[in-house]
Amino acid sequence: MKLHHKLKTFKLGGVHPDDQKISAGVAITPLPLPKVVTIPVAQHIGAPAKIIVQRGDMVKTGQIIATHEGFVSSNIHASASGRIGVIEEVMDSSGFKHTAISIRVKGDDWYENIDLTETLVEEIKLDPKEIVARIMEAGVVGMGGAAFPSHVKLSVPEGKHVDHLLINGVECEPYLTADHRLMLERPKEIIVGIKILMKALGVEKAIIGIEDNKQDAIELFQQLLKNESGITVEALEVHYPQGGEKQLIQALLNREVPSGGLPADAGAIVHNVGTTYAIYQAVQKNKPLLERVVTVTGKSVKQPSNFLVRIGTPVIDLLIAAGGVPEDTGKIISGGPMMGKAIADLDVPVAKGTSGILLIPKDEASRAEVYNCLHCGKCIEACPMGLEPYHLLLMSKKGNSQRAKEEHILDCIECGSCSFVCPSNRPILDYIRLGKTQIRKQKKV
Amino acid sequence: MSAGLLTVSPSPHIHTELTVPQIMRGVIYGMVPALLFSIYNFGLGALYVTGLSVLFCVAIEYAIARYLLKRAASIYDGSAIITGILLAFNVPTNLPWHIILIGSAVAIGIGKMSFGGLGNNPFNPALVGRVFLLLSFPVQMTSWPVQGATFSLDAVTSATPLGILKDGIRAGTPVDKLLSEMPSYTDFFFGLQAGSLGEMSALALLLGLIYMLYRKIITWHVPVSMLFTIVVMTGIFWLIDPTRYASPLFHVLTGGVMLGAVFMATDYVTSPFTHRGMLIFGVGIGVLTVLIRLFGSYPEGVSFAILIMNAFVPMINKFAKEPRYGVVKEKVK
Fold first, then answer.
1. Mean predicted confidence (pLDDT) in A321-334
2. CA atoms of B257 and B226, how far apart (whole Å)
3. pLDDT single digits (tens) B296-306
4. At A110, phi and psi to the nearest 5?
5. What angle do CA B183, B184, B190 make, to 5 degrees?
6. Which among A12, A17, A374 has the least Cβ separation from residue B268?
7. DSSP-based three-state secondary structure for A192
8. Quick count: other Cβ atoms within 10 Å of Cβ A29?
9. Which one, A264, B10, B298, B323, has least CB within 10 Å?
10. Which of A333, A371, A405 is the mutation pick for testing B, counting most B CBs within 10 A?
11. Do A17 and B16 touch (CB under 8 A)?
């Protein structure tokens, strides 16, 4: 890093948790197929997919087993071949029970017309409409964690002008390295994926944003993109939550998404590198989204790893492959430590949005003693949206949702920076979530 | 394989190292240079007064929490220790023990616990105690021992530079003549002047400030805006008439300005939330301090200035908001 060169970053707030990227040097290894895959039909934002198979049916890998219900929804594919088993509600990583289709795996017999070779296909034959249709068909959703259907993002509403495609290689969550490894191991495919997205959106410019703790990935892309026009790499300061869509737009373009608006209102569309890779596979290889890279990590984990995992694989299989569950494990998180969800059960299946499994030791698993608010203002300093978290907590606690709304509680991106910095360990984000829910409920009534 | 019982809680799952007890400890470490200097300067009297004040503050908070409010004692967070040290920093080292007890009782009892304890008090507790003592025991509170009188609790007393200045100007003596009879600015900077226990050495207080800034316990906004305002305002008057007004350097190095700027005005609970608010707060304290010093009847005005601005904090919080992402202008239309 050149010291005199000031790296770009977002302008408001943010925090600097210890990045703990202990699995960054570990290459991606494919995890063997499990005996049973359990595939939830609601892995994405939007309507759950509609099941089109029955118990006892034989399915092939890559075959659609549930179709999208409406536009904001996503297809679900069999991630292994075998016989459909029970279709019932199972606990997923959200902590709630959702319907899932189980497949008793019998080999890995792929569905027709899927290109399983490693050959890089650079020529993009499809036109923009066909690209979006193919992405929708392949069930691609945002793989950074939010799992928003990608074809919806690519359908820019009438009257909005998008001039930039931003590729999110930030991976600002501590511990996680899935995107980092993918960038190192599949950079050419990601670049083709970017070109596909640029064609679909009709934009001339794309920027890949990568935080400075991934120097190797930055240099690799700089080298590969030397002779490309339109696609650039931008090294960003390590600064959480830079991977947030709004923060990345501010960091790379110095534009703000208006409160309540969409990224397209700021002329940008953001896609994660993992999603971009899945889009390459969908469009060039006709391969649906049925596997992803998952980081398995934690301070006491024997072999921190990055696995290529079929969707529906139980978390326990990943943990065994990483050397077992350490004695001192107190909490298991699906995702990163800032925004991930604690899971209560090791049979929870890997979903399209599962970026990592993080094991937290017992002594760091529980929350510490809560003190009175000291008015230190650190939560305000940390909020990347410029909100006043302490104030939102008080209003939510009092049930004063009208005032909370006026104070832009709905702008909260739930990054957790306020709770992270609060010296009094106050449950700030918990109350803000409660306040947001109160407002959404009132809207429905 | 089983992982036993797992903890399940909403995100975030990690937390910063800096928690309330650590912040309180950090502030106490920040006060160590000033305390050490005071012991060097005034001898064991400084340690005696500080020790008593801390003891009284902690004991009173414990008693109020346990026996009056009937809840768990909150003394372990360290805030009562800080109030105790700060109260001691604001009084002469020859103060009798019963006055310290009264000051501690007012600071903790009225200044802090009557509002609900840590985090709820609108006014800086140590200053509430200090001003109460100043108004109730004006003689004892303004008889400062001569520095260097180590190991004696009944040393000869002398007036502070600010007191000499105020009386001198009232008597019509030109400022430069008054200053020539006082220690040099370098002596002021190192703390060789009369005054309250912890307020004399700008150097020791600056060390504390640097430490707290380094630990990210406080930000620069309040101390810098307050000192800057005092320098600018006293500078203007000094340039207009140097025979009637002392220089900005004199005003910054004497009295409680440094102590106020570093430890009193930066108190989290009684200062604004946002950086913008902190700047307004600092400027307000600076303006009030200068007005009281130059035109008020008291030679020193930092305590009153901070307490007055404490009262404005809720209003400042309401209006001094940080810019928001994606919100261009609030409530236009």
1. 92
2. 9
3. 888 888 999 99
4. -85, 150
5. 90
6. A374
7. helix
8. 12
9. B323
10. A371
11. yes
| CA end-to-end distance (rounded Å), chain B | 62
Q: What is the pLDDT of residue A278?
A: 96
Closest approach of chain B CAs to the CA of A320, in angstroms?
9
Contact A374 B23 (CB under 8 A): yes
Confidence of residue A5 (pLDDT cuts 50, 70, 90): low
Q: Is A320 on the interface with B (CB under 8 A)?
A: yes
Interface test with B, best of A245, A301, A347, A380 (most B CBs within 10 A): A380
Q: Yes or no: say if B175 and B244 are a contact pair by the CB < 8 Å rule.
A: yes
**CA A193 to each of CA A117, A188, A201, B115, B223: distance values in angstroms, whole numbers, following the listed order:** 17, 9, 12, 61, 52
Host H or E run for residue B235: helix B221-240
A387 contacts chain B (CB < 8 A): yes
Distance CA A350, CA A312 (A): 5
> What is B50-84 written as a DSSP string?
HHHHHHHHHHHHHHIIIIIS-S---GGGSHHHHHH
pLDDT at B151: 42
Q: Which of A240, A315, A372, A422 to mutate to test the interface with B (most CBs of B within 10 A)?
A: A372
Q: Chain A 187-246, CB below 8 Å of chain B: which residues?
A: 246
Whether the CB-CB separation of A82 and A109 falls below 8 Å is answered with: no
| Residues in chain A closer than 8 A to B12 (CB atoms) | 337-339, 416-417, 419-420, 429
In percent, the amount of chain B with pLDDT more than 70 equals 93
Name the CA radius of gyration of chain B, rounded: 21
Distance to chain A for B10, nearest Cα, Å: 6
Residues of A in contact with B272 (CB under 8 A): 377
pLDDT tens, position by position, B116-166: 888 899 999 999 999 999 999 988 887 777 655 444 444 456 678 888 888
Average pLDDT score over residue span A44-55: 92
- Ramachandran region, residue A20 (left: φ > 0; alpha: ψ -120 to 50; beta: rest): left
Distance, CA of A273 to CA of A190 (rounded, Å) = 7
The number of angstroms, rounded, from the C-alpha of A252 to the middle of its chain's C-alpha atoms is 19
Q: Does B215 touch chain A (CB under 8 A)?
A: no
Q: State the pLDDT at residue B97.
A: 92
Q: Is B255 on the interface with A (CB under 8 A)?
A: no
Least confident of B19-28, B64-73, B221-230: B64-73
Residue to mutate among B6, B8, B280, with most A CBs inside 10 A, is B6
How far apart, in whole angstroms, are the C-alpha atoms of residue B170 and residue B298? Answer: 12
Q: Does A341 touch chain B (CB under 8 A)?
A: yes
Quick check: B324 and A408 CB within 8 A?
Answer: yes
Q: What is the pLDDT of residues B236-265, one digit of tens each?
A: 999 998 888 889 998 998 888 999 999 999
Q: Which helix (H) or strand (E) holds A361?
A: strand A356-361
Largest CA distance in chain B: 89
Which residue of chain A has the CA closest to B23? Answer: A423
Calculate ∠ Cα A307-A28-A137, nearest 5°. 70
Chain A hits for B281, CB-CB cut-off 8 Å, are none
Given a cut of 60, whether residue B28 has pLDDT beyond it is: yes
Mean pLDDT of A30-44: 94
Q: Which ipTM value was assigned to this complex?
A: 0.88
List the A76-77 sheet strands across, edge first.
Answer: A50-51, A64-67, A76-77
Using the Cβ of A333 and the Cβ atoms of chain B, whether some distance falls under 8 Å is answered with yes
State how far residue B116 is from chain A, nearest Cα, in angstroms.
Answer: 10
8 A C-beta contact, residue A75 and residue A54: no
**Percent of chain A having pLDDT more than 70?**
99
| Share above pLDDT 90 across residues of chain B, in percent, rounded to a whole number | 55
Return the number of other C-beta atoms located less than 10 Å from residue A89's C-beta: 11
